[in-house]
Amino acid sequence: MPPRRRSNRIRKPDVNILFTTTGKRHRRRVLLRWSLLALAVCVTLTAVGIGTHLAVDSFLRHALYQNPRYALKQIVVEVKGDVPRKQVVQATRLALGQNTMSVDLVEVEHNVEKLPYVAEAQVRRQLPDKIVVRITERLPIARIVSTRQDIAMQELFYIDRDGVAIKPQPNEAPRNLPEIVGERFVDVEPGQRLDQPEIQAAVTLLKLIELTPLRTQFDIARIDLNHPLAMELQTRDGARITFQLENLARQLDRLQQILDFANNRDRQLATVDLTPERNVPIRFKN
Fold it and tell me: What is the domain partition of the chain in residue ranges?
């Protein structure tokens, strides 16, 4: 009898259909169980969070925001100078009796800083019933005259160290400040920053002079901006000094040397032209 040939086909393992189906169902049940557990945890945490928020909100509302002890009774304005306190209080938009804890301090500061003569405002609570507003006033260093086109009228304005226009207070006597002339000022508004290069140069010159001995040696009457790329400082005793619009600190150093030279020889300056880099033209009185 011939030998039986061995089959080359690989026999597949028997598959238990019942076991496979049961395993898939088991995995689905486990996955569903864990999903429901995770959902329950999320719902619980959300409920706890909402409950905590409501409890804290209720506590704050009754303990602070609805507590009559924190009703606003006094608005204190701390300021040096002539800033009208009544206008500052009106600008805060606060009302006596409102809750001090509900006051938005940043918003109050912004409201007060809209006043043209206020450079900076700092607002703080002084519990239980007081709001304190501290004002840093704009300090004028020059004056200008603006023309209002709609009514053909001239108005006096002051300029502070940042070049911001300040409207004088009603019935305020004009201040004895240097006048900036030569620039056509039209329809200037309180709080407007005059950022023309010539005006900023004039303001910078006045600020720099305040930091030098020249502040006591010159009584400045005006700064004339009519000169192209230059400005002329005029003193009340008739001296005229011409500056470039740039490198003002270096020019003031040269002017101080010239003034020291004149004082040592008992001479008075009539004109000085600081625009040349060398050979500065100088004329003395008499």
Answer: 68-137, 140-284
